[in-house]
Fold each of these.
Amino acid sequence: MSSGAGENFWTTLPLGREVRLLAHDANGLAAFAKPAGVLSHPNTPKDEPRSLLQARYDLESEAYRWTDAGGVARQLCLLNRLDSATSGVILVARDEALAREIRAQFLRKQVRKIYLALVFGRPHVARQVWRDRLVIEKRAATVRTQRGGHIPAECEVSVAQAGARDSGLTLLRLEPRTGRSHQLRVQCAEHHLPIVGDQTYGNFPKNREFAKATGEKRLFLHSFETDFAYEWKGRKFTFAAKADMPPEFGAFLAKG
């Protein structure tokens, strides 16, 4: 199976709905901008039309596989995941060995990730570090996380932009130092700054009021920037990608 080579590979990908290529390097690392509502990978073949790539996904190898127009077998390995409701930067690699190395860096917490979240309320201080203990329950295909367990969760939090006074909204910059399932959504809720549109952990009355006033029901959580250094074939490299903040985040901040 060929992982592809050259620019032609990156310009002929079977990209999902509104998915954009942000960056790629000579080693085959790449970043996409994933829209809200798009799956990181399909769980069943019927999910393929609403996934990152419109291609078959192998759960065991964590790789998309397809045959291009020239009949050549291609693949891209998924390096991280975002909830379908979360937009922003998501990473892939052409080479399976490189994919294993970058996944290991995620586990070693060597990948810097920055998120933006539009939340109800205003923090008491402009910058702080949240340190919580979580419990994570996985039942079938459902994951639920809550405070009060023994799993450490840490995140650096700062105010990126205060909304108009009458809006009751704040844009937070979140830099997680741990990578727990639903960590940011749970920590925001537990610190009384629920993310707008969070249908699982958020403020349900405020979500309904916001949706009625704006017509917007998305989760306002966005993977804004990812960067890291890595070593490959005896050489050192850096990789960085940024997905611009969706325009609706700023639009609602300005409205009272």
Amino acid sequence: MAVASAKDNKNIAQLRRLIDRLDEQILSLLNKRARIVMQIGKLKKASLSDLHAPVREIEIYERLSRLNKGPFPNEALRAVFREIISASLSLEGPLKVAYLGPKATFTHLASLRQFGFSAAYVPVNSIKDVFSEVERGRADYGVVPIENSTEGVVNHTLDMFIDSPLKIVGEVMQEVSHHLMNKSGRIEDVKHLYSHPHAIAQCRVWLENHLSRIPTTEVYSTAKAAEVCNENPSAAAIASELAAQLYGLQIIQRRIEDNINNFTRFLVISQKSLGRTGRDKTSIMFTIRDRVGALHDMLKPFSEYGLNLTKIESRPSKKKAWEYIFFVDLEGHQADEKVKSAVEALKEQCLFLKVLGSYPSATEKGND
């Protein structure tokens, strides 16, 4: 192993002193920024404006990404400024976010990805409770799972939108990596396995090859499984790395999911709609009269106005036999003329139509 010379040590010390001075400048600028943010917060409160402005956040990320010449990576730049913005929002006023808990669920991770660590997070026990917290004003936003790239849609979330007045104001694409964990970190100590049914399904091949004779119990979240293991040395859980850290568990095997490209899409819900960002997606739901050619006629307005559909899903209405509710995602904002015209044309053929919201389209790497 090479040993640093006295000259090298001196150069390192000089560079570290330079870093210290730069850190002090960054700290000074952060506090200067925070004072300006607090002024903006006072003006917003006086005019009864929303403190949280997702469109403004997107503008900040995109502008800085264009200006960035490196070597600092844009992905890390986004993470840094997400926390700066999150901390700034906490100075303006507490931002409350409801999510499917407990801590360390993948919904919690998606919430952190969207709002940063400085928001006030409210874990609840069900998707219905997330909607309720936001509808009753006890949370500013809610985060709910809507679909997984392996297991498909979360039907309960779709059903909640039928009667809820809430709007979709964002989406988060969260990579889902499942880890096997227990108290000891040894697979031979595993006598019982706990996890959410989706996580178990997504790791089916690995489990059949390595734990086929171990009994499995489904629980309402991966984090709950980790909590169970914290109290039971013979139990193992399939959960996130954050869950292992929070509940004092050791990871036996990392990334045991069958599909390594495993993502879950989450929706951000709020009482208020969101304005244009320039890269928007709109979600709608509707029912149509049961007749020959109904599905073709439903798709025709989108084709005529040159709109790309990114998703179409159907669910039984539960009100009438063989009546279905369709959920559609399309590119564009509900205020765009093409989208407005297509929706109006579709509405004429529907028994019921509801615009669920327009919001910035996310990518698999985040909301960049």
Amino acid sequence: MGGAGKDRHRGGLIVQRSFLSRLAGISDTKAWPWLLLAPCLLLAMAVVLYPTATGIDLSFRQMRLNRPDLGTGYVGLRHYWAMLEDPVFYVSLQNTFVWVVSTVGIELAMGMLAAVVLDMELPWFRTIAVIVLLPWFLPIVVAGNIWALLLDSRLGVINAALVSLGVLDDFKPWFADPAWALPMAILVEAWHGFPFFALLLLAGLKGIPTELYEAAAVDGANLWHRFRHIQLPSLTMVMTAAVVLRAISLMNSPDLILILTGGGPGRSTQVLSLYAFQKAYREFNFGYAGALSVVMLLLLMGSAWLYVRLTGALKDD
């Protein structure tokens, strides 16, 4: 028994040394980084790729929970052809473009202004920073209901102030007016989301070397010249990433519009994400909702690629 145990031990050492020698050989090749990344790649495939592929597959199926008699078979491009004849889809597409572009533009401008001011480290800097970031800390449900009360057509403080100042003759139902519902929702979302830009842009400003500011001061540059020639070019990468991330968030999240207007009045605030949500959880037409989601995915990928190319953020120096 003792001899057999020694033989097994000796055999185990030989296998271990053989494995280590092969591993040492692989570590000197290009395959080594991929081997180290394999667990992360498998996790990404499980968490990201599989659900995405399932959603795309769903868009080609018949999936209506309130009509189990229809089955769950493949229907090809039926949902996409139906989408081309759906007037609500075109209204939602137009509103989505206005919603995302306008909100991101306002948030970027407000965030840039807040970041530049905070970068000056004025007195009460920390207090001002907390106040600026406060809207971002509020859950979107809380922020939406707060603004719904502030803009209420009967009890709203903003309506009362505007009437007392003579700007309005009477209280205005902002979210019940098709001409004002989407602009007001954009302003509420911009108020809630601009600290996201302010935080990222402020971090980018803190990374600019002080030597550049000192050289600009020697050349007699004022605040505008410093912003235009030093700060703005240095923030290209940060702005590009922030805009893309925020656009993705806005296009995929109908929660604020759902709280404020529910897509109305009429279809004036209907966006693609809200339309897909309604198709899935009101009409239980998950196949059509999946097709809408695939269209949103393609629009986001194409828009992000085009924006990155236009800004030149990924160009080599």
Amino acid sequence: MEKFQWIGSAVSYVLVAVGYWKIFGKCGVKRFWAFIPTCREYQVSRCADREKEGRTYAIISAFYYLAQVLQLVFRQETIYHDITVLVFFTLAVARLIYLIRIYLGLIRIFERRRRWIWLFIIFEGLTAIIWGFSPKFQPSKKVPDPKAAKAARLAGVDAGVLEDGLTINIKARTVIDFFRKRYLLRDIHMNIPKGHMVLLLGGSGAGKTTFVNAVTGYEQADAQIMLDGRDIYREYDSMKYDVGFVPQQDLMRGSDTVKLTLSDAATLRLPYSVSASEKRKRVSKVLEQFGLSAVRHSLVEKLSGGQRKRLSIAMEFISDPTLFILDEPDSGLDGVVARSLFEKLRSIADEGRIVVVITHTPDRVIDLFDDVIVLAKDATRTGRLAWYGAVNEAYDFFGKKSMEEVLLSINQKEEGGEGRANEFVDKYAERMQQKAG
């Protein structure tokens, strides 16, 4: 009986492998993956346009196959065998859930009826053979080949170090993404003088957050980040007080008062060398600067949206940073309140600081900005610099009349954009090389 089970398993494996050997060919995936368990599951997910889910599916499948082997190894030992059976059953259920998700994606890509899911679950090998060998079954789109995509031009021109401002020279920011090296950012070089308020513009996935993390030193890249001639990476412990970052979501306790919230921030953000009396003076000054003195004894949960946002900004400003970065500070605010907030940020920049702001509604306050950084995904899905410079010059460079139009021009076509990211990254790289040459 056991012999027939082995034969049945072998036949099923061959049918599945051969079927996917043909399916992978249709989808643009290398066919040899069809014969490698676990890798095959991941490649199926790519064909189904479900790569993220496919990673989990592949890992579960790896443990599922291991549990199968352990069942055979411990089949004579009751206790271990029972444990492996339980583990195997748990993994089988989890694998089935992901298998259904992946196959529903495959059915959608091949533009077939959802009832095919039952045949995949019950007769996976036979179904794979039918889909693979029948010319009637063709995918609506193929898996993109990252090696075939053409990366935009590299400028390779480092910015000279400013003694009084921010110098950014990011060669690359990479990660190992499911056994593959992937570029998140590449070839980003610029100088930002003090007193400038800069808009950071880019579509979803263009690398804005990664860029901010690299500049602040939160996630170091292959880069040199200099603030007033000092290296943020090398002197991070002493320079972290010179860099303020306000996230989109605040982390304040609603049951605390405004003054207590700011006092706690002072304790955390100011160096230990600052005395208690100096901290109290700093708290009072910042309360006055951000128009919060009148509500200093109010609970955070009782504040208006604009007051709460100003308090969130004041918490980071308490350390008197030279570089101040804000992620969508106007989120959830109406036009008048948002305008007032940005005017406050403008005044902060005018005091000799560098203010960098991410906002999804830049056009209503664009007159308050000096410069704009435009990040774009090139054809390899890498965050690249498509522009850095004055706002008015940016309109001429992109041939657009608003920042919203600029954003649409660099967004991918599947995101509703014009898909011209490579064009503008190339154009800007050429511009930088001409200036340097």
